[in-house]
């Protein structure tokens, strides 16, 4: 039997009150959206990857403080959850590839 200073055996399943909404570092189905999110920060910069259950995927990088970053994430999640106006399967950037590829 192995233990640690927290008083539980890491080789046994944790009880439901000790399990957070995490899966391999991804936030799962929390903060008012249905999907996965992972973010990372360094001093002066931040990045976020999001995959919503409706199939929309977003990657955001910014160079500012953390408070603005979370506000931006909140706005993007709500836009992504209400993207009926963008509900098609065509490549929105094909015209760029036609000119440069």
From TrEMBL:
InterPro entries named among the record's database cross-references: AmpC-like
Protein name: Uncharacterized protein
């Amino acid at each position: 039997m192995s233990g640690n200073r927290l008083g539980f055996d890491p080789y046994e399943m944790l009880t439901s009150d000790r399990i957070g909404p995490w899966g391999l570092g991804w936030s799962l189905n929390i903060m008012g959206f249905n999907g996965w999110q992972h973010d990372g920060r360094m001093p002066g910069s931040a990045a976020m990857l999001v995959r919503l259950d409706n199939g929309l995927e977003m990657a955001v990088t910014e160079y500012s403080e953390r408070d603005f970053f979370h506000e931006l994430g909140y706005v993007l999640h709500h836009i992504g959850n209400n993207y009926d106006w963008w509900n098609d399967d065509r490549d929105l950037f094909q015209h760029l590839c036609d000119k440069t590829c």
